[in-house]
Amino acid sequence: MIGLSNDTLGYASLGASTFLASAHPSESCGSNGLPLTPNSVRILGRSQLLYTVSHPHLCSYVSIQRGKHERLIVVQEFYKCDLLAAWNNHQEFQTEKRLIQVMHEVMQGLVYLNKLGISCCCNLCPRNLLIDPYGKAKMNGYGLYYMTEQGTAVSFPIGNEFSAPEVLIAGACPELRPAGGGGNPSSDVWSLALMFLSLILPTQTKSGHKEPLEISVATVLLMASKSDHDDLASAIIDQKPQLLEKFEMLSAATQDLLRSCLKFDPTSRPSPIDLLSHPAFAGLTLTAPVDPQPRPFPRCTIASPRKAFPPMDEMLSNYPLPDDCMTLNHDGVKTGIGGLRERSMREVYHLWQLAGGQAEQELVRHGFIISRPPILVKSSSEDTEARKLPLVIREKDVEYQFHRIILFHRLLRAYPYYRSRIVADAHMDIPPYHRGEVWAALLGVDGDTISTYAEIDKVTPTSTDRQIEVDIPRCHQYDELLSSPRAHQKFTRLLKAWVVSHPGLVYWQGLDSLTAPFLYLNFNNEALAYACLTAFIKKYLHKFFLRDNSAVIQEYLAKFCHLVAFHDPLLFSHLASIGFVPELYAIPWFLTMYTHVFPLSQIFHVWDTLLLHPASLALCVAAAILRHLRHQLLDFSFNDCILLFSDMPDINIEQVVKDSVDLHLETPVSLLYRHHAPPSSDRDTEQHLSGPLNDLSSITLAEQRSEICGRISGADVVRLSEALPGSLLVVDTRPQHLFQTGSLMNAWNAPGELWMREGDSPSEDGGPQLVLEQAKLRAVGKMAVVVMGTKAAHHLTLQVCEQLVEAGVARVCLLHGGVDVFQASGHLVVPSPGAS
After folding, report:
1. Which of 129, 158, 545, 552 could form a disulfide with 151 if both were Cys (CB 3.0 to 4.6 A apart)?
2. Positive or negative CA dihedral for 203, 204, 205, 210?
3. Which segments cross the bilayer (predicted)?
4. CA distance readout (Å), 480 to 89, 475, 486, 488, 594
């Protein structure tokens, strides 16, 4: 175990720096579908290795903290004198011997980092090479490239004018950076040699002062791409001959060191560990071991007794020491450091934090972190990001709801003139704050609802009063508001008002559940709740509350069976085989429009969509519920299904609503035709087509209940064929000689005799299995499989439909009236010879 660094504070200070990690795009996820880990978190985890760095020529990392908005704050050992300041203020740092010593010390630190697993710093420059009071070099900021995953976790390039050419190119073009590469140690060798070259070959200013040789990034890249030389030192001397004399004054070993370290090809440069044995460093010894030393417990966590500092007279002259470094004896003589400066840096920083110190506040106080007020710009288009969020989240989003409330407030003030706009915007979602008013607008409520409601006798006893009194205490009593006595009174008045004002209808159990959503949303406006209830029943439950509603219910259930068989024949066949028919579970769904099944919070979302569509969408909601439970139902027996629907499991109601709309769009309009549908219900009434193509009124209830597949009108077949050519598979079951007299375009002739079951008289063209396989192949990707024949052979056409459904072919429907409906419409064509 290497353990944490416990270097003594001594004459050092603690320096803080900060940077921002790059942020991921909103709502972005990884390949596993989970949100991406913030880059600041990745950096924080990776940086923990830096705490273990302990070497005389490397500044210790004391703290790495994560702040708000992907900010990271780094606290590190710091000295007020860097290499450039020492070069300017101390003559000895301008000599070859001293600079070679500094270079050797830095090289030891690089070798230590390489052995620790930090292959490259990419951040070496004079300001990051600090000089301690005794003239020893210490690298600062060497962990930035490592902790940011080679710079991929930040949006700024890591490097400077002393960086190697390959580092500069990778910073400008990140796509050229090797994938997963940890950096090349020879890049740091380049930076160190370039710093040495700039200091050992200074230029003279007009005032007589020396300045380091300036070598721009552009010059380095230009020479790397076009120079005839292998190394930068030779290229610069060739470009500036006046430097040749100074360069030749260096020892031969130093010249060789610079040329080898500044080679343009990174693979030709020596590594730091190779350079330790270079002749230029002959006579210099290692300050400390370059191998990270494992330390046993407790030395790996507890600081060892500090070594004595060298005498003060060995310090650099006029070195900028911290103010609290010196202590005085009783004679007033400076005796060196004491107190907290004898403790480790991490201990001192911890105690400083306990005393209330915060690195981020210090950076703010010194102007390194500046909070600027946000600049708000009015968007030219609506924000679409929030619309992509789930509905339950959008309903909790303050800003999103603020804009939706304002929008619907304005639209409702212009009702009924803006009803079409209300409908259009409600397709996105309905703000809960205005849900009651929006529902009333969608239902077309208008006029003096208060006077109408006031004129209804809600006091005189009726024969239904007893049943109402029994039902109300069981209606959505989990809700605090609806369980209150005042709510029960309002329930009673609303139900009595509806019964009295509709003498042709009766009270059925479930009417109380239908009333609950409207009362909840309009608790203080009974008149509006009554008007909404009346309009809702008229549109979505037409004739359901007749005294004898068996025909209405049976037709509704038959249509539901047709819908399930159309979209999911496998599930339909399984439920039919175990005897689990809709009469056992679906009647409460339809009679209460699901208010008896789901809590109010989910009913609101179901009805938000239901009110925007025809009454037939209610059938699709039931089909979507079965689709949601499909995998369970296919494995369940009859008893299992009974138990499942006796206590409806939790389902994703938003997904169910979405699926129901999709099913409604994918279902031909005529397939949902009902005799008892409200007059305003959408029907297939193409005006330019003749009557027989639209007329479905001749279908009897007995036929609907006995047939597995629903019937499609001729008008729907023509409309789908013209709008989406090739989207239908038309199966003509007539004999071939009748098929040749005329059929629909691209129809497939499969005579009914070919579909006869095993045991019947065989066919010359093959058995039913072969025809079924062909039908399955042809039905792939079709919006509907339309089976048609003649009226005389209607039983044969039904048999074909049944076989297709039992075989699992989806979207099978029966053409109402057979081929005969097209005889006078001009849609039949004579197939080409050989067509089948």
Report:
1. 158
2. positive
3. none
4. 81, 12, 11, 12, 20
Helix (H, G, I), strand (E, B) or coil at 525: coil
Cα separation, 122 vs 112, whole angstroms = 15
Q: CA 648 from chain center: how many Å? A: 30
pTM listed for this prediction: 0.57
Whether 660 and 623 have beta carbons less than 8 Å apart is answered as yes
Q: Can you tell me the mean pLDDT for 8-32? A: 84
Rounded CA-CA distance 391/570 in Å is: 32
Question: In this structure, is the dihedral angle defined by the CA atoms of residues 219, 225, 231 and 235, taken in order, positive or negative?
Answer: negative
Cα–Cα nearest to 47, from 21, 15, 8: 21
In the chain, residues under CATH classification 3.40.250.10 are 691-822
> What are the residue ranges of CATH 1.10.510.10 in the chain?
13-281
Q: How many residues are given for the chain? A: 836
Q: How far apart are CA 796 and CA 244, in angstroms?
A: 105
Please list the residue range(s) of the chain that carry CATH number 1.10.472.80: 449-672
- By three-state DSSP, how is residue 66 classified? strand
13-281: CATH topology is Transferase(Phosphotransferase); domain 1 (1.10.510)
CB atoms within 10 A of CB 151: 23
**DSSP string across 448-515:** -HHHHHHTS--SS--TTHHHHHHHGGGSSTTSTTTTSHHHHHHHHHHHHHHHHH-TTS---TTHHHHH
Question: What integer pLDDT is reported at residue 444 of this predicted model?
Answer: 92
Q: Which of 368, 259, 514, 538 is nearest to 15 (CA)?
A: 368
Pairing of strands 71-78, 13-20: antiparallel
Classified as helix, coil or strand, 737 is helix
Cα 136 from Cα 174, distance rounded (Å): 36
Q: In whole angstroms, how far apart are CA 560 and each of 25, 293, 344, 816?
A: 45, 77, 78, 18
User: Helix 526-540 crosses helix 435-442 at what angle (to 10 degrees)?
Assistant: 40
Beta bridge partners of 829: 743
Q: 486, 529, 492: which is closest to 507 by C-alpha?
A: 492
How many whole angstroms separate alpha carbon 639 and alpha carbon 217?
80
Helices (H), 176-251: 185-200, 217-226, 232-239, 244-248
Q: What is the DSSP letter of 732?
A: E
Tens-digit pLDDT profile for residues 524-580: 889 999 999 999 999 999 999 999 989 999 999 999 999 999 999 999 999 999 999
Q: Which amino acid is at 708?
A: I
Q: Which residues are paired to 432 by β-bridges?
A: none
Q: Which two tokens stand for residue 189?
A: 């060798």
Contacts of 719 (CB under 8 A, 6+ apart): 684, 686
pLDDT tens for 145-160 read 999 988 888 988 888 8
Fold topology of 449-672: Cyclin A; domain 1 (1.10.472)
Give the pair of three-digit tokens for residue 129: 């090479």
Structure tokens at 158: 């890591």
CA–CA dist 701, 698 (Å, integer) = 10
- CA 218 to the chain's CA centroid: 42
> Phi/psi zone of residue 486: left (φ > 0), alpha (ψ -120 to 50 degrees), beta?
alpha
Interior/surface letters 60-74, b for 16+ CB within 10 angstroms, e for the rest:
bbbbbeeeeebbbbb
Q: What is the pLDDT averaged over residues 175-185?
A: 60
| Omega before 38 within 30 of 0, i.e. cis | no
pLDDT of 682 > 50? The answer is: no
Segment 361-406, tens digit of pLDDT: 999 998 888 877 777 776 655 556 677 788 888 888 888 888 899 9
Q: Please list, in sequence order, all residues whose beta carbon lies within 8 angstroms of the beta carbon of residue 797, skipping any fewer than 6 positions away.
A: 733, 752, 787, 788, 789, 814, 818
Residue 831 DSSP class: P
- Single-letter amino acid, residue 108: Q
Q: Which residues contact 248 (CB under 8 A, 6 or more apart)?
A: 255
